[in-house]
Design brief:
The protein has 359 residues and is of the alpha+beta class. Helix content is 40%, strand content 27%. The strands form four sheets. It has a six-stranded mixed sheet. The chain is flat. The N terminus is likely disordered.
């Protein structure tokens, strides 16, 4: 690459950073106007970058798992509201992306509908349509607008995951933009081997939660033979050995949110995450039965943290601390989110684009 072309690439990188980080006053623009303007700026910079030549990669976000995940969460919410409200019901089941249930009492049906509407207030992605049938049957399903919003959120989460995975792999100059409702376009200026990039995403992030085996020390297990059903894994940052169960009690599919943050008391960087309904119930059961034991949070066969269970965790929210820098906390949060994404990426296109701009 000539000096002139490198300089132009550098300027476009700065433009891209500005486009991504742009923060116009929200009071002056509605959210949809703000998002459209930002998307146009990012797309413009991306198109300019493509003229320099490089690799274009397009992924499709498979939404089938998202549909199943949303229906499962809705069923869990319906069950919780019915149980907590002491509403008699039967035939609760997932069907065709929605939830069917039979509630003989009309007041009970109305109470459930009000609770779900209240929980979705201010959350367009959680809006529910309720259809009454005969003999007390009711069908609950996400509205079309809610489904579209969930898909948009999944695409945005996927973009964040792609950015973090590329950053962790040392790839920094890149344009990543939505391409239609369910596709993502990646462009890497100057890169002529797109296979190297797609290989990064061919491997799924593995997230698991395992109990620590205290029957012998990790050092003994490492130098000898670990107990049956257990294995030695190394720490993500401290590199020390941990003896953990091979079987997971929870995994990435049980997470529905993850983000970096700061500990309330010390202000140290942490990775926070929250379980879905199924994961929350499972976590409460596991922690109730194992108070006093350590619980390892494992990411790609590396132990991120292994806190001692002091009491049952019933709320479903967890914070991971481990002497992280903010960048490390963000990386861990994004990888946890990547392991939890309800929908995977399907490679649609990869090709090398020849430069059209003069050096």
């Amino acid at each position: 690459m000539t000096r002139a072309l490198r300089n132009r690439t550098g300027r476009l990188a700065v433009m891209l950073s500005i486009a991504i980080a742009i923060a116009l006053p929200r009071a002056a623009l509605a959210d949809d106007q703000f998002d459209k303007m930002r998307a146009k700026i990012v797309a413009f910079v991306g198109d300019k970058m493509e003229k320099l030549g490089g690799s274009r990669i397009i992924y499709k976000v498979d939404s089938s798992d998202l549909r199943e995940s949303v229906a499962t969460d809705l069923r869990d919410d319906v069950y919780k509201n019915l149980h907590d409200g002491h509403i008699a019901f039967s035939n609760l089941a997932i069907r065709d992306g929605g939830v069917d249930v039979k509630i003989a009492d009309a007041k009970g049906r109305d109470q459930l509908a009000r609770k779900l509407a209240s929980a979705a207030d201010g959350l367009p992605s959680h809006a529910i349509a309720v259809t009454d049938g005969s003999d007390g049957a009711a069908r609950l399903a996400p509205t079309d607008a809610a489904s579209a919003t969930r898909l948009n959120e999944l695409v945005e989460d996927s973009i964040a995951m792609i950015e973090q995975r590329l950053k962790d792999s040392g790839v920094k100059l890149v344009s990543i933009v939505p391409d239609g409702a369910d596709r993502i376009r990646i462009f890497l200026p100057g890169v002529t081997d797109p296979e190297r990039i797609t290989a990064i995403f061919a491997r799924k992030v593995k997230v698991s939660f395992r109990l620590v085996d205290a029957s012998m020390s990790p050092e003994q297990a490492q130098s000898g033979t670990p107990p049956e059903g257990s294995e030695v894994l190394l720490g993500f940052k401290d590199k020390r050995p941990y003896l953990v169960a091979k079987d997971s009690v929870l995994d990435g599919a049980d997470i529905n949110y993850a983000a970096p943050g700061f500990a309330a008391g010390t202000k140290d960087p942490v990775a926070s995450f929250r379980f879905n309904g199924r994961g929350t119930r499972r976590l409460a059961h596991v922690t109730e039965e194992n108070v006093g034991r350590s619980f390892a949070i494992v990411l790609d066969d590396k132990v991120i943290s292994a806190p001692v269970i002091r009491e049952p965790i019933t709320g479903g929210s967890v914070q991971i601390s481990g002497n992280f820098t903010l960048e490390e906390a963000n990386s861990v949060a994004m990888l946890l989110r990547a392991g939890a994404l309800p929908g995977h990426l399907t490679l649609v296109e990869q090709q090398v684009i020849q430069p059209t701009a003069k050096p």
